[in-house]
Amino acid sequence: MHSRVSPLLALLVPLAAAVIAGTLFSAVAAGEVPEQSAGTAHLSAGAVSEAPPASPEAAQPSLPAPWALPNSRPELLERYQAWAQLHPEQGVEQVVLQVNMGLDRPFYSGTQVLEDPDALTVLVNKYHLLPDGYVPQLEPLGKDYGHGSLRPQAARAFRAMADQAREDGVQLSSVSAYRSYEYQAQLYAQYLQWDPQEVVDTFSARPGSSEHQTGLALDINTASLSSHFEDTPAYAWLEEHCAQFGFLLRYPEDKQHITGYRFEPWHYRYVGVSAAQACTQLDLTYEEYLARLSPSQIAALEEEALAGEEAAAAP
Ligand SMILES: [Zn+2]
User: Fold this and answer.
1) Of 100, 130, 148, which marks where a domain is finished?
2) Quick check: is 1 in a domain?
3) How far is the CA of 311 from the centre of ligand 1 (A)?
4) C-alpha distances in angstroms, 212 versus 47, 97, 179, 285?
5) Is 3 among the domain residues?
6) Which one of 100, 128, 146 terminates a domain?
7) Fewest C-beta atoms under 10 Å: which of 18, 182, 244, 265?
């Protein structure tokens, strides 16, 4: 195998840090950040101008200043401008992030159907829906690993994770993995009989927008708030180890304004090791992380997930 070792993470972490630092720097200029962080912000902000463009595409010459950031998307220019007008208190970096995440619009408005639903790094949420009738390739997890099926890559990764956990004295078992569009539609309709839609939307995905339909997400050990999974040794183990197996806690606490979902300590998504580790190290949701990357970096992330997959599948 030729060398595909250069970890994208090494490239992405400084970029994300630079973007964050850029935001911090504007905040410092506006006097919003305590004195002691200013030095760090200055140092990192300096790195923004010194960093070479990640790729020719990342330069995006079609975008006028000040919108030509490495992570800005030319097709969103009008939305950047509209959001900036509504929020003059926000810096350019913040505006670009907000719009890249889709958060300039209410959840479930301006939704897009995904062109590449089979990507291991695919983002499925209240703005990005799976195509009608989408069914991934699936493989049963196996009787020692709980209920259901996942895509082969995610199934292998989950079994490896559960095996390691077991060695550490922790039991991880799937209670819900792949769910079809039809099953999700039934679930969602059932919840609507008990709660108003704005409440249901905080804990159940509308059909077509569920990560469970990708075959890359699963609920571990429970799916109920009252069981307080976040207080268990299994949760603590996952917090420490899930990223090294390519899994990500997808709906963390206090991120409902970004993900649209309340805290789900049991819901994990396979995204590949690089993305999972980057999100964990930077303390970012998947939405926040992808919004910081250029389109070519997102493509590279997918390649890296596939390469990691090849390496894992090799005898
Ligand atoms: Zn779930």
Assistant:
1) 100
2) no
3) 28
4) 39, 26, 5, 17
5) no
6) 100
7) 182
Which distant-in-sequence residues (6+ apart) come within 8 Å of 227 by Cβ?
none
Q: Output the CA 132–ligand 1 centroid distance in Å.
A: 20
Judge whether 172 lies within some domain: yes
pLDDT in tens, 121-159: 999 999 999 998 999 999 999 999 999 999 999 999 999
Ligand 1 geometric centre to CA of 55 (Å) = 36
Instruction: Work out the number of other CB atoms within 10 angstroms of the CB of residue 245.
Output: 23
pTM for the predicted model, two decimal places = 0.81
CA atoms within 13 A on the CB side of 169: 3
Q: Is residue 2 domain-resident? A: no
Identify whether residues 235 and 215 lie together within a single domain. Answer: yes
pLDDT digits (tens, 9 = 90+) for 13-72: 444 444 444 443 343 333 333 333 332 333 233 333 334 444 545 444 588 889 999 999
What is the whole-number distance in angstroms between the Cα of residue 275 and the centre of ligand 1?
Answer: 19
Neighbour-count burial for 15-44, b at 16+ CB within 10 Å, e otherwise: bbbbbbbbbbbbbbeeeebeeeebeebeeb
Q: What's the 35 CA to ligand 1 centre distance in angstroms?
A: 42
Structural domain including 183 reads 112-313
Name the active-site residue from 93, 264, 288, 309: 264
DSSP-derived secondary structure letter, 95: H
Q: Are both 92 and 136 inside the same structural domain?
A: no
